[in-house]
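User: Before I run my own analysis I want an independent prediction to cross-check against. Here's the chain; please return only the structure tokens and, at the end, one sentence I can use as a sanity check.
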Amino acid sequence: MVRARRARRLGRRGPRQGRRCCGCPVALSLLMDLVLSCGVARSDENTQVGVFSAAGFCGIRGGCEPSHGGTARTSVEQISRDVGSRVVNQQGEVGRTRYLVLHDYGMGGLRWWVWAGSAEEIIGACAEVEVVSDPDAVSRAETWTLEEVCLDDPDPNPLSSLRAQRDAQRGQPGFGALVGRERVCLRWPEGDEGEVFLMELGPDGRRLRQVEIGPDGGSVRTGIEDWPFNPPFDLHDPQYASMEIGSGDFQEAWQRARHESEG
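Assistant: Structure tokens:
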């Protein structure tokens, strides 16, 4: 529910019409550098080479078609593919790479392309996000019209609330204490109806196993195959450090509990 409310605050932004350039000076400088040094760019694999001027690229950013033929969207996507290796090669000079970033709130997720120095920099600066590294997922996202943003863009921007949340956490006791663990076991405070949840989390913050202890002492265990949604918990969040229990305590509760399917 907390994640759903947060999603409503951020707005359930689906794919937008059109593609917005992030305005990041790094991204723009790479494109401009390509124009000035090469002077040409393919608009499509099956079409002739077309020449694009700097004014043409400015037109792309504003949503107009380039001034020398071809469509803005096709040309920019092809250029991105052509200079992909160049972006990586120049990372040491410009200090920026584009990452696919996901805010998973359970029933859905918000995604952006984020320009930053490293994946670790993004996680350190923004709460409740993950950097997607699966090549297939990144390739699929390349076909979507996702918003682009630089990590240090001025507020307001799509990451503003997540950055503010992380800033509020930093410096609190327990901040980041659970990061890097192979397994993390938590005991949640007692709920309104007297129920208590014990959870075993993996290094990415997602649940692996869970035990629900009812007010009568009976307990039910569930696993990954039992949950339709499994959003990650942000292990940097200091609130979780105070909930930590030993793996032995969790294992003992797991063995006492019956499986949900056993009735």
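Sanity check: The longest helix spans residues 25-38.
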